[in-house]
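Hi R.,

Here's the input for the shikimate-3-phosphate complex you asked about:
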Amino acid sequence: MNIVLIGFMGSGKTATGRLLAKQLDYRFIDTDQLIEQKNGMTVANIFDRKGEAFFRQQETELLKQLCGADNSVIATGGGIVLSAENRSLLQNLGSVIYLQADPPEILKRLGTDQTRPLLHKEDRLAEIHKMLAVRQPLYLAAAECIINTFTGQPEKSAEQIRQLLKIEVR
Ligand code: S3P
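And here is the predicted structure with shikimate-3-phosphate in place:
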């Protein structure tokens, strides 16, 4: 059994996933982090030097490698749902949870973060709206459950996920 967290940048996948894994005594897996480790560079540098298409291939390869994972909480990159193949790989991995957040909230949480190459834009809010319009239906299609992360508190999101999946803290 795995729990797979999907959602837009800044929706709290990593913080919530780390906490949930600790509470459940599960392994925590972060796809961005594993891709960075494998390539020996940051996501921003991968985008810069090898391009987005290469990064997306890395995501798919990694999901295939994770197919034997068990008792893990897997936090994914915000664009992982763009590919139909990835969406089905995610669903095969376990319960897919969409951490939903609204554009103004996302903007607030990301602040002036420079680690997300896709948001290196002048009008970040407009870009978030544009990207979310494409992605929202994909997140919804891939997810088994939706969590609204409006409080911005990983503790609340983790609790909601445990309640939805009926899993007790160990
Ligand atoms: C991306 C989200 C990032 C990272 C990369 C691309 C996206 O992950 O994978 O910058 O396309 O939304 P987070 O969602 O963890 O920020």
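One thing worth noting: The helical segments are 13-24, 31-39, 43-50, 52-65, 84-93, 103-110, 124-142, 154-165.

Cheers,
M.
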